[in-house]
Design brief:
By secondary structure, the protein is mainly alpha-helical. It folds into two domains: about 220 residues, no CATH class; about 35 residues, no CATH class. Helix 7 runs antiparallel to helix 8.
């Protein structure tokens, strides 16, 4: 029985041989199916670990959404990248290009899955929501760096060995990585939660969509460092103070003293 993961797993054994096989391979359907299946299994497993911090439903939801996150981000960004390569004079076929990009995603998902036991360890021993948020971000960044580096090496091989890819395309690919990262970050924000705050009930998607990833990252950092509890003075305009028809000057003075007391603060969690 043929192992459906075998073609995708070849990238871990000998990268130069793997890149050469991609250049010589006339049909990419089997390779693409193997890569997609591998990414599906790996991302679902890691997403399930993420969501297990909250509940079983969150675990199942996060596993599915993490795979959709990868797929949708690639679906949004790949057409523009391939068209730009054609404009630059690339002779590489779309199947070849897609297998190269998916190879990077296989690498990313495999590295993420390798960190799953570490994540489980901190979930069981630390149980700090802010720390786990930052840990998952670090895992994504670390895996992304190595995955995109693999894609860059594959494109260089196509340029030097197969002579079907322009050298300037590698530079364009680095720019595309930045664009892809921004799209992925915003998409992940819209598809949250993945980890799931223990103080909130399960939701497939958050109803509140204000803010962005960067403000959330800064807030999580502040929470981890214990600097997020900032006192904010009450600001109430006098025009908003309810009036009473039988109010005396003494009553007004008492109300103003209570509302504008300098020691009254609101602590935002």
């Amino acid at each position: 029985m043929t192992n459906p993961f075998a073609p995708a797993f070849e990238v871990f054994q000998n990268q130069n041989t793997y890149f050469q096989r991609l250049n010589d391979q006339p049909q990419y359907r089997r390779m693409i199916l193997s890569q997609v299946l591998t990414i599906l299994v790996f991302t679902f497993c890691y997403g399930s670990v993420m969501g297990s911090y909250h509940s079983f439903l969150q675990s199942l939801s996060s596993g599915i959404k993490l795979f959709l996150l990868f797929g949708l981000a690639l679906l949004i960004c790949f057409p523009s990248f391939y068209i730009v390569q054609l404009i630059l004079g690339s002779k590489i076929r779309i199947g070849h290009m897609l297998t190269i990009i998916l190879s990077g995603f296989v690498f990313i998902s495999a590295i993420m899955l390798a960190f799953a036991p570490i994540v489980v360890f901190f979930q069981l021993t630390g149980d700090n929501y802010a720390f786990l948020q930052l840990l998952h971000v670090a895992v994504f960044v670390f895996a992304g760096i190595f995955g995109m580096r693999l894609v860059a090496e594959a494109l260089k091989h196509a340029c030097d060995q197969a002579n079907v890819y322009p050298r300037i395309g590698v530079t364009i690919f680095r720019i595309w990585i930045v664009i892809f990262a921004f799209v992925g970050i915003q998409l992940a924000w819209n598809m949250r939660p993945f980890l799931g705050s223990p103080s909130l009930a399960f939701e497939l998607f958050r109803n509140e969509t204000r803010g962005n990833f960067y403000s959330t990252l800064l807030r999580a950092t502040g929470n981890l460092l214990g600097t997020d509890q900032i006192n904010h003075p009450i600001e109430i305009q006098k025009a908003q103070i309810p009036t009473r028809t039988n109010e005396t000057p003494q009553d007004t003075a008492v109300i103003n003293e209570e509302i504008y007391a300098p020691n009254d603060t609101i602590v935002y969690p």
